[in-house]
């Protein structure tokens, strides 16, 4: 019994044409006419699936762009990047990182505080934190900008608090000097690197050497 081959998909036909054109050009030689025209009159706006050969990730491409996308090559290896045949690509293994707007993301506490938790994103298969940032910047641009602005404001507030503590410690030392009391040795001084409060300069020096590997105060 003869087993019939499954009909090619549109993407597979375009890939076949790509390979035929490449082989025809090779056989014809540089001096011979090399132009071969294949015309597809099917609707161009319909999207077709392609798979990235390296990791099996699926993308949807309009028919009129199939030849262009299938012709893309890796700059380092010269190999084609996409294929129209799923079995020719690696097995796709989705990630487990959540979008920052996901209902179960650790950012939800902050999102609720700044009013961005009303419209969660269901994306839960991002591959790493870089993919998470790229997804946020492209799919949730305004929300991501608001979230980053909030984090920046919070860092600024914490920096001001540390500066205020350092100023208060300096003033305490000055007041002690006026009263003939060595308050420098007893005042609570915040670490300029992490903000942890230390007992006098001696405590600060010990903390910096132990935690930050530095002997400077």
Brief digest:
The protein is mainly alpha-helical and 217 residues long. It contains six helices and five strands, in the order H-E-E-H-E-H-H-H-E-E-H.
Instruction: Write down the Rg.
Output: 31 Å
Shape, principal axes of CA atoms: elongated
- Unreliably modeled segments: none
Q: Biggest sheet, open or closed, and with what strands and sense?
A: 3 strands, antiparallel
Word description of this protein:
By secondary structure, this protein is mostly helical. The chain folds into 3 domains: 10-88, no CATH class; 94-139, no CATH class; 159-212, 2-Layer Sandwich (Double Stranded RNA Binding Domain), CATH 3.30.160. 42% of the residues lie in helices and 9% in strands. The chain has 6 helices and 5 strands; from the N terminus they run H-E-E-H-E-H-H-H-E-E-H. The strands form 2 sheets. A 3-stranded antiparallel β-sheet has the order 2-1-3. Helix 4 (129-139) crosses helix 5 (141-178). The radius of gyration is 31 Å and the shape is elongated. The model has no long low-confidence stretch (mean pLDDT 80).
Topology:
Elements: H1 10-28, E1 47-52, E2 58-62, H2 66-70, E3 82-83, H3 108-113, H4 129-139, H5 141-178, E4 188-190, E5 197-199, H6 200-212
Antiparallel strand pairs: 1-2, 1-3, 4-5
Features:
217 residues, mainly alpha, Double Stranded RNA Binding Domain, 3 domains, three-stranded antiparallel sheet, two-stranded antiparallel sheet, 5 strands, 42% helix, elongated
């Amino acid at each position: 019994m003869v087993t019939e081959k499954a009909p090619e998909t549109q993407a597979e036909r375009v890939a076949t044409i790509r390979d035929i054109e490449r082989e025809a050009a090779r056989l014809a030689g540089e001096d011979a006419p090399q132009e071969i025209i294949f015309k597809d009159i099917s609707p161009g706006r319909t999207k077709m699936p392609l798979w990235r050969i390296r990791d099996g990730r699926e993308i949807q491409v309009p028919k009129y762009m199939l030849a262009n996308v299938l012709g893309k090559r890796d700059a380092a290896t010269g190999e084609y990047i996409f294929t129209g045949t799923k079995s020719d690509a690696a097995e796709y293994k989705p990630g487990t990182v959540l979008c920052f707007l996901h209902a179960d993301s650790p950012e939800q506490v902050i999102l609720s505080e700044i009013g961005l938790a009303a419209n969660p994103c269901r994306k839960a298969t991002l591959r790493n934190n870089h993919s998470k940032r790229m997804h946020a910047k492209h799919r949730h641009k305004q929300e991501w900008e608001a979230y980053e602005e909030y984090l920046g404001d919070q860092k600024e507030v914490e920096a001001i608090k540390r500066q205020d503590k350092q100023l208060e410690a300096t003033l305490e030392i000055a007041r002690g000097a006026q009263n003939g009391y060595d308050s420098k040795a007893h005042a609570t001084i915040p670490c300029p690197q992490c903000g942890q409060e230390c007992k006098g300069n001696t405590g600060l020096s010990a903390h910096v050497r132990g935690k930050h590997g530095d002997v400077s105060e």
